[in-house]
Write a structure and sequence with these properties.
By secondary structure, the protein is of the alpha+beta class. Helix content is 45%, strand content 20%. The protein has helices at 4-7, 16-29, 40-54, 57-88, 180-191, 214-237, 241-263, 281-291, 312-326, 329-350, 394-401, 445-463, 470-492; strands at residues 99-105, 109-110, 115-123, 125-130, 134-136, 139-145, 152-161, 166-175, 355-358, 360-367, 378-384, 388-392, 408-413, 419-426, 431-436. α2 packs antiparallel against α3, α6 (214-237) runs antiparallel to α7 and α10 (329-350) packs parallel to α13 (470-492). The longest helix has 32 residues, at 57-88. The chain is elongated, with a radius of gyration of 40 Å. The chain starts with a helix and ends with a helix. This is J domain-containing protein. One of its GO terms (molecular function) is unfolded protein binding. It comes from Paenimyroides marinum. The chain crosses the membrane at residues 233-256, 329-347, 446-464, 476-492.
């Protein structure tokens, strides 16, 4: 019987995956359209014959039986010859070790879920045992599934020789060190099966995964405190409290995310995240986060962060350089236009115009027709000097008319005579309030839209970075840029 494994140039007892791969390789190599050797056609037909034979499970089983029989016959013949020689006492044959024709794997380093192909072929022996498979035939192949982490795996083959001596041969497989984060994750997973792999990926400023060191934490807090103070000032001294409140919520969430990552970096605190939700005590906890050192080894929240001692100015400089290298031009002008829009809004909020004192002369309420759900919408107006009608909120309306909190009113106009704000003054307490109009009006949807657009823009910038997603990301940046331009125009003019 023909050993078709030899025809396909693969080890005996190879599985179907190895057979198919060998067939594809050899059929391309010896195809008559490619290989002009006169014997190529004949060999190509033989390759196809071997493939058809080996892919038939019944025929392959017959070949395996034949190969086993040949191996056993060779072993029996050797034993018979040695027995006759001993009987005749003509001479004592030398004791020979088993012959190792093949004992190998297709890779020296592995990762979890890898398939490692083990091949062996031995002769001049009585039995073969492989520690990961048990007792096996003299020749064969087997795929080993690496389903758990280990620094190394020893494949030990024990061969019982013709002299009944056990001969041992081993192959050492080492875990792949090319990705330290993946190795650390698999190692930690043995202790904590529920560990989240996301903690072992790259840490990002807005993310909630991985760990950060105390110096990075300190610099980020300083950086976040700047917009927090500016936004607090905007909230206290402007009428766009809704937008300021939303920005405040986002900033608090980002600060919490930094505390969340930092607390996971400290051995004695890493399981006490709940303490961040205790009012007042969490302020003392932040102080602890600023001075405690990182845990020296990996834990279930990621690898030890890279330590640094950069000052805040150096840290800002490095971050700006990284952003400059990472951002294409459309990203830069999009984020830059948003920063310009914020500065214009802030400037317009605190800017004073020429004010003219007016008298409150009347008021009225406009109501809409009842909706299908029975709800009625109301718009509240106060009238100054019998001709200037101003739309105000319900709260301002009742404070002006019912509570009589103000006794002096001033209207500010721009160069085109449009009302910018109304200043409400209580001369007894010197308390004054501004009701803004135009782009700074508290109910202006443009500011809310721009705030939400910027948050979504940050998400797109940080998460949609795959090559097939970049076209959408650039398009979104351009769309955001056009909206910001409209906001800038609307704020200036």
């Amino acid at each position: 019987m023909i050993n078709y494994y030899v025809v396909l140039e693969i080890p005996n007892f190879s599985d179907e995956a190895v057979i198919k791969k060998a067939y594809r390789t050899l059929s391309k190599k010896y195809h008559p359209d490619i290989n002009k050797d006169p014997f190529a056609t004949t060999y190509f037909l033989k390759i196809n014959e071997a493939y058809d034979f080996l892919m038939d499970a019944n025929k392959r089983m017959l070949l395996h039986q034949y190969l086993h029989a040949v191996a056993n016959q060779a072993s029996t013949k050797t034993n018979y010859t040695q027995s006759n020689l001993q009987k005749n006492r003509q001479y004592s044959p030398p004791v020979t070790k088993p012959l190792i024709h093949v004992f190998q794997v297709n890779k020296k380093h592995f990762a979890v879920n890898d398939l490692v192909l083990l091949q062996w072929n031995v002769s001049q022996c009585k039995a073969v045992h492989i520690n990961v498979l048990g007792n096996v035939s003299f020749a064969g192949t087997h795929y080993l599934k690496m389903d758990h982490f280990a620094d190394e795996i020893i494949i030990l083959m024990t061969i019982t020789g013709l002299d009944n001596t056990a001969y041992k041969y081993q192959i050492k497989l080492l875990y792949d060190n090319s990705n330290p984060a993946e190795k650390a994750f698999q190692k930690i997973k043995l202790q904590f099966p529920d560990v989240d792999e996301a903690h072992f990926k790259k840490e990002t400023f807005f993310g909630m995964n991985a760990r950060i060191n105390k110096n990075e934490f300190k610099n980020r807090l300083v950086f976040l405190s700047i917009p927090m103070v500016l936004n607090t000032f905007l909230f206290l001294f402007s009428t766009i409290q809704i937008v300021s409140f939303l920005i405040h919520i986002v900033l608090l969430w980002v600060i919490f995310s930094q505390c969340y990552k930092r607390i996971h970096d400290i051995e004695k605190l890493k399981n006490n995240v709940w303490q961040l939700f205790i009012p007042l005590y969490n302020l003392f906890l932040v102080k602890e986060l600023l001075v405690s050192d990182s845990e020296a080894t990996e834990n279930k929240f990621g690898l030890p962060p890279k330590q640094s001692s950069k000052t805040f100015l150096n840290w800002i400089s490095d971050k700006l350089k990284q952003l400059n290298n990472r951002m294409p031009f459309i990203y830069k002008i999009s984020f830059g236009s948003f920063a310009l829009l914020v500065l214009l809004v802030f400037f317009k909020t605190i800017k004073s115009f020429n004010e003219t004192e007016v008298r409150l002369t009347s008021h009225y309420i406009e109501t809409s027709r009842p909706q299908s759900n029975g709800r009625i919408y109301r718009d509240y107006f106060v009238v100054f000097n019998d001709e200037i009608s101003v739309n105000v909120t319900e709260n301002d309306f009742y404070e002006i008319l019912s509570k009589r909190k103000y006794d002096t009113y001033k209207i500010a106009r721009n160069n085109t005579n449009e009302i910018q704000y109304v200043r409400l003054i209580n001369s007894n307490t010197d308390k004054d309030t501004r009701i803004n109009f135009g782009v700074l009006h508290s109910s202006n949807p443009l500011l809310l839209l721009i705030s939400l657009l910027f948050l979504s823009q940050l998400y797109v910038f940080n998460n949609l970075t795959a090559p097939n997603e970049l076209a959408f990301t650039k398009g979104y940046m351009f769309f955001s840029f056009m909206v910001y331009l409209y906001g800038i125009y609307h704020t200036i003019f």
